[in-house]
């Protein structure tokens, strides 16, 4: 199976371009990467992956600077449409580490990217591919962050952008970003999955170039999250993490991290036995991946009604499930659902260590806490939790989870009196 950790390094087919090509994860059909616009397999309609004739080891990244393009040897280009994405902090959180009870806990805060989420890593590559293909209009469906990133990177690349959002279900900061960066914002009277259905049909009809995570090039950029985490752990602990815990929406990151690890194994840079256990977390009200993992199912059942205050992962039909399910299983990981209350509690805990995240991001920490309490995560594990978006993305959720302002009079005496109450 092409998605197995022990798969051999592939050989370049005739249609490869500079050692890169697209390959179907199911039937193995190969396609030239930049000749035509293509999102899925012509033969069987399944998902595509970018494949390379030469895969880098960590040594190849040495001396390359910081950020996504440090890892150009693992990407289809040497440079992209960039606003300096990547190189995000891998924070220590000693109190949380202690309280949850693991050997080491680090927070990879993707909210520290230029537009405040990891989506920037995918867009710096995806928008570059759009330029290479010569398209002039970009589009995505989004729970918010994809639209903010696409709007910023599209405008940086000088292209028109169209974003489809579920009306009333997108956090304020994200709409503000898409708006100011100049996207046309279409508010759809339906949920994210309906938006994605529509934008896929628009893309199939040639109306726009699709930059959802169905687009295999986005996941190439997002692989660099995994490469940064591994380099960070190797530098600080001389070993890679035992486990990486991450929020799951469309399961793009789960797929991208797994691909990063598979390529390192194929390149001989990582032992199969050392690959971190990929551990996905969903909100209880939107947990089709968790259901599939718990039932040992090969496919995910689409949930038509989804609800959670973690709006970034309010998704019932994770398009990358065929890539992500093998990723979780082959790495001996798992998936877990958490309640909105557990998410908010984890958001407060992170904030108390100085780390501001939006609700979906806190799901990773909430999930780790739950799995540790259940004994599924051991106390001797070194763990990285991914926090996917910044606190300011969803100011309403932050204000609701935090403390209320206290009205005081406009004189020092009155303020002192109030403080003594
Ligand atoms: C997009 C997004 C997710 C979901 O990521 P997937 O790769 O689709 O699983 C999670 N959190 C935030 C903040 C996001 O913006
Ligand atoms: Zn196919």
Automatic annotation (TrEMBL):
Boundaries of each Tryptophan synthase beta chain-like PALP domain copy? 82-389
Q: Which cofactor does it need?
A: pyridoxal 5'-phosphate
Question: Residue positions of the PTM N6-(pyridoxal phosphate)lysine?
Answer: 119
Kindly give the InterPro entries that the UniProt entry links to this protein.
Answer: Ser/Thr_Dehydratase, Ser/Thr_deHydtase_PyrdxlP-BS, Thr_synthase-like, Thr_Synthase_bac/arc, TrpB-like_PALP, TrpB-like_PALP_sf
Q: Which PROSITE patterns match?
A: DEHYDRATASE_SER_THR
Any idea of its EC number? Answer: 4.2.3.1
**Name the UniProt record assigns to this protein:** Threonine synthase
**Gene source species:** Natrinema salifodinae
* NCBIfam families associated with the record: thrC (TIGR00260)
Q: Which domain of life is it from?
A: Archaea
Its family remark reads: Belongs to the threonine synthase family.
Residue sites binding pyridoxal 5'-phosphate per the record: 145, 249-253, 388
């Amino acid at each position: 199976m092409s998605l197995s950790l022990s798969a051999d390094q592939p050989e370049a087919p005739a249609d490869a371009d500079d050692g890169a090509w697209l390959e179907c994860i199911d039937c193995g059909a190969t396609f030239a990467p930049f000749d035509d616009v293509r999102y899925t397999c012509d033969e069987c309609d399944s998902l595509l992956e970018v494949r390379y004739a030469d895969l880098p080891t960590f040594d190849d990244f040495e001396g390359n600077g910081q950020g996504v393009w440090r890892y150009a040897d693992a990407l289809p280009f040497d440079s992209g449409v960039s606003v300096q994405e990547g190189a995000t902090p891998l924070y220590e959180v000693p109190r949380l580490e202690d309280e949850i009870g693991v050997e080491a806990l680090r927070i990879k805060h993707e909210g520290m990217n230029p537009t405040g989420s990891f989506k920037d890593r995918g867009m710096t590559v995806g928008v570059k591919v759009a330029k290479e293909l010569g398209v002039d209009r970009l589009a995505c469906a989004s729970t918010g962050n994809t639209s903010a990133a696409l709007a910023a990177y599209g405008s940086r690349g000088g292209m028109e952008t169209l974003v489809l959002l579920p009306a009333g279900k997108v956090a304020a900061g994200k709409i503000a970003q898409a708006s100011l960066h100049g996207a046309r914002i279409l508010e759809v009277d339906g949920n994210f999955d309906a938006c994605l259905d529509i934008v896929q049909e628009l893309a199939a009809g040639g109306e726009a170039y699709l930059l959802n995570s169905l687009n295999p090039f986005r996941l190439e950029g997002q692989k660099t999250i995994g490469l940064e985490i591994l380099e960070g752990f190797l530098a600080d602990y001389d070993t890679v993490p035992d486990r990486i815990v991450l929020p799951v929406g469309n399961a793009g990151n789960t797929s991208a991290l797994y691909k990063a690890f598979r390529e390192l194994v194929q390149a001989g840079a990582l032992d199969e036995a050392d690959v971190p256990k990929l551990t996905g977390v969903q909100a209880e009200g939107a947990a089709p991946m968790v259901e599939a993992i718990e039932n040992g199912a090969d496919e995910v059942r689409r949930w038509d009604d989804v609800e959670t205050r973690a709006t970034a992962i309010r998704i019932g039909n994770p398009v990358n499930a065929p890539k992500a399910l093998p990723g979780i299983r082959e790495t001996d990981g798992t998936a877990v659902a958490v309640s909105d209350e557990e998410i908010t509690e984890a958001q407060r805990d992170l904030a108390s260590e100085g780390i501001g995240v939006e609700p979906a991001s806190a799901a990773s920490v909430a999930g780790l806490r739950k799995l540790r309490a259940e004994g599924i995560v051991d106390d001797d594990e070194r763990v990285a939790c991914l926090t996917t978006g910044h606190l300011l993305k969803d100011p309403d959720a932050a204000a609701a989870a935090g403390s209320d302002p206290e009205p005081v009079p406009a004189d020092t005496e009155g303020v002192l009196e109030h403080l003594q109450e």
